[in-house]
Automatic annotation (TrEMBL):
Coiled coil ranges: none
This protein's name: NAD(P)-binding protein
GO molecular function, one term: oxidoreductase activity
Family listed: Belongs to the short-chain dehydrogenases/reductases (SDR) family.
Presence of the UniProt keyword Lipoprotein in the record: no
Database matches in InterPro entries: NAD(P)-bd_dom_sf, SDR_fam, SDR_oxidoreductase
Source organism of the structure: Bimuria novae-zelandiae CBS 107.79
Keywords assigned by UniProt, alphabetized: Oxidoreductase
Length: 282
């Protein structure tokens, strides 16, 4: 396969940083981005990556300017929409502004960045867009309302996007990740909103304890996950010669979540079919 040039968002730590180092190790080029001061990307630049400041929450017009600057030095073959974080808290206690902040990064940021690169992909009639979903987009969990809402929204948007762009030579893939051992669950990275509604105090306590227990103990290996995702884009390794699914869960915990939801949905279809069909015109 020919050498590819990747654009990856959210590379200051975690999965994004693993993506960049692995892309370089596989012999491809990569533009690593992060919001604000790109000195945080200095180690990736030393490793051979191009580094650019890109804030996915900026207006589309500003992101287009950054994209145009990146494209001046060569075409982009793969966009990885990786930037994201977690807003946690009870659904009633999280404010509208906090919900919007979560959507601005995890959902609208993905849309804006993708829209900025799509004209380039359409012009060259090729390109691959990677979307980073979550088990939180398969089933909700207490205290994860804002985050799960963005991942459910992303899944719905992706299903439409894939059908709309396939005839243009553009490929895309949604990877739904379980808990991977990155810093996303570090208390300094997620934002937990807890108010003083008595009825939620106990469940708030349990959610905090769960997040603390998961930090550093997540079952997913970021390096292994990134290797699989790159295999899918390059159609090699575990993806070579196989018909690729429209979405792929990664991590044993995400597989369990998906399987449980699939069984529940199938049971609903089977047990309630008469009622479901009974609402049609006769």
């Amino acid at each position: 396969m020919t050498q590819l040039r990747w654009l990856v968002t959210g590379c200051s730590s975690g999965l994004g940083k693993a993506f960049v180092r692995t892309i370089l190790a596989r012999g491809d080029k990569v533009v690593a981005t992060a919001r604000g001061d790109i000195s945080r990307l200095s180690s990736l630049k030393e490793a051979g990556a191009e580094t650019v400041s890109l804030d996915v929450t900026a207006p589309l017009s500003e992101i287009k300017v950054v994209a145009a600057s990146i494209l001046e030095s060569g075409p982009i073959d793969v966009l990885v929409n990786n930037a994201g974080y977690i807003e946690a808290g009870m659904s009633e206690e999280v404010s509208y502004d906090q919900y919007m902040a979560q959507f601005e990064t995890n959902f609208f940021g993905v849309i804006r960045t993708t829209q900025a690169i799509l004209p380039h992909f359409r012009e060259k009639k090729s390109g691959f867009v990677v979307f980073i979903g979550s088990s939180g987009g398969i089933a909700g969990e207490p205290g994860a309302g804002p985050y799960c809402a963005t991942k459910f929204a992303l899944k719905g948007w992706y299903d439409c996007f894939k059908k709309e762009t396939a005839h243009l030579g553009i490929k895309s893939m949604l990877f739904e990740l379980g808990f991977f051992r990155t810093k996303i669950d570090d208390p300094n990275n997620y934002k937990f909103r807890s108010e003083s509604i008595d009825e939620y105090k106990e469940i708030n306590k349990l959610v905090k304890q769960f997040l603390q227990s998961m930090d550093g103990n997540q079952p997913g290996d970021p390096q292994k996950g990134v290797e699989v995702m790159i295999d899918f884009v390059r159609e090699e390794g575990v993806a070579k010669g196989r018909v690729l699914p429209e979405r792929l869960p990664l991590g044993s915990d995400c597989l369990s979540t998906l399987r449980k939801r699939a069984v529940e949905d199938l049971n609903t279809c089977n047990e309630w079919e008469d009622v479901i069909r009974g609402t049609d015109y006769k």
